[in-house]
Amino acid sequence: GNWSLADDLCKKVASGAAVCKCQTGFSVLTCCTVNFSMYSLFYNRLKNIEENEGGLDKFSKSYKTFGVNQFVDGGIYCKEWAPGAEAVFLAGDFNGWNPFSHPYKKMEYGKWELFIPPGQDGYPPVPHGSKLKVVIRAQNGELLYRISPWARYVVRDEDKVNYDWVHWNPPQSYIHKHPSPKRLKSLRIYESHVGIASPEGKVASYKNFTYNVLPRIKDLGYNCVQLMAIMEHAYYASFGYQVTSFFAASSRYGTPDDLKEMIDVAHSMGITVLLDVVHSHASKNSEDGLNKFDGTDSCFFHSGHRGNHQLWDSRLFDYANWEVLRFLLSNLRMWIEDYRFDGFRFDGVTSMLYHHHGIGTGFSGDYNEYFGLHVDEDALCYLMLANHMIKFLHPECITIAEDVSGMPALCRPVAEGGGGFDYRLAMAIPDKWIQIIKELKDEDWNMGNIVHTLTNRRYEEKYIAYAESHDQALVGDKTLAFRLMDAEMYTNMSVLSPLTPVIDRGIQLHKMIRLITHALGGESYLNFMGNEFGHPEWLDFPRRGNNESYHYARRQFNLTEDHLLRYRFLNAFDRDMNKWEEKFGWLASPPAYVSEKHESNKVIAFERAGLIFIFNFHPYQSYVDYRVVIFKYEILLDSDAAEYGGHQRLDHSTEYFSEEYPHNYRPNSLMVNELVGISLHTISVN
């Protein structure tokens, strides 16, 4: 925010005179050269916006002038950016779909505008709920009927393939009643998809999520919900990652006001709401998407090969383009200010950061992988601008980067030359659990490797740990529960059936994996909806390949309410795990001190937030009088307790005191009376 200081710094960088100490964990020379270079690019771009657009505030509010907007007097102002168009018109229900009666006036830099005065009675000429199209006369003379890139509401009739643009301007919009929660120290994120948030085989609604799912999230102890597939996407099975209308909330779940109410109710419960935002690419749809909006191959995207993602079959934004920056920054601001989202999880950041998009590329941590001509500096500069804008205008908002590459300083402040994100996803952790369960016998699990994966993160950058997300739930993959228990989940999850070794092992390891990830893996925690109780089977959206079935596009929350099923044990453990984090705040505490990772005993022990966590991963060996580093303890959370489907082998009523017996480089230790096989114990230290 100190622009005179920043300006002086950039001048020194330009002259090669700046030398600073780096605190981001890589070499000072590399940090200075690259970070100051990126900061200089960011600063110059921001300065251009300030000088030519009246400031970042005005620039990022362009959603109030672009598209179709109504004045107070009822008049309609329309504005589009279509640099490749020969002419632009507005057609719709309001003018009998006459494609030429309402032409736009050409402006500078490829912009077009149109003003339609109010009627004599003061009513708007384009009524709420009427259908519209922008008509583009392309350079070859062809007329193209397009949805405005700034459209706020689009719908699809059941008998149609493409979406229609519907003018959304109700006489009375939803009024938010509750303030946003204060910025959280510990994020416990419930990753959610509105459409599948019901046991019924159908597309669920915003209303269903508001009144049936939010209370469940609150009860489970999650304080943040991350919403997927909100930005409108024509193809439901894309999981929301092939966006067609960036400013429109998906109409398949309800109206924009329904979504606003849902967020407002979440805020009333103290729940922070994040949007899974997709600015890394866009759908190739042209009839109801951004592609070829003005009849050219470029417009919002790079032209030719560079503008296409070969794996995702989608279009790639030109982040150096002035109007693309306007579009994307305004998009973020609209979601914050109109809908009251509290921040974003940026999808596909790795694809944005590199010209190779991470395709066919591994990342070993060598700094040559992060700095060089293969880095897309314009994309990285956009992310810096986005984070700067969000923090400058709404400092309470949170941003998360989905980056698998481990780009250094991505979660350091922009003022340090960093990317400006608050958190990054610890994407190596779920991969590690899958690899262990899939490839190794229980007795071959490597305690040191598990600890290394859970603690291997960049210095002073915050990570969101998770054992599994939506990626592992999708068809073609398996959730942890399904990998651990597989076919027996169909036959032996009833308490009336015998507790088989497979189900017993699966239930215990499911709890242990989640808690050690929660407590050791980062500064926040994420869970995908339903996985907390070991949701059976996989997730698959209706498509041709499954005869348009909704059978797997749902979440069977009812399984936890049946007291004859063992799913309730996992659900209870997840809830209590979050409850204890809320009380002790280990996610907001400094990184854990790992006092033991014993390979032959298969024991991991560590300290964090005044608690001792002890995990016995041995498949069959229990230990009596097991010595650990501790002063005094009582058991708080025990995976072997009856309420979590355990065998009740430990006495919770006893307090234990240490002795002056050095162990694992600590002066005091004690004997844990019993450490049972495949179990964990969370211990309060006094």
TrEMBL record:
GO terms for cellular component: cytoplasm. Its EC number is 2.4.1.18. The keyword Glycosyltransferase applies. It comes from the Eukaryota. Pathway: Glycan biosynthesis. InterPro entries: A-amylase/branching_C, Branching_enzy, GH, GH13_cat_dom, Glyco_hydro_13_N, Glyco_hydro_b, Ig-like_fold, Ig_E-set. Residues 200-574 form the Glycosyl hydrolase family 13 catalytic domain. Coiled coil: none annotated. Gene3D superfamilies: Glycosidases, Golgi alpha-mannosidase II, Immunoglobulins. Keywords: Glycosyltransferase, Transferase. GO terms for molecular function: 1,4-alpha-glucan branching enzyme activity; cation binding; hydrolase activity, hydrolyzing O-glycosyl compounds. One of its GO terms (biological process) is glycogen biosynthetic process. The active site is at D347, E402. It catalyses: Transfers a segment of a (1->4)-alpha-D-glucan chain to a primary hydroxy group in a similar glucan chain. Belongs to the glycosyl hydrolase 13 family. GlgB subfamily. This is 1,4-alpha-glucan branching enzyme. The gene is GBE1.
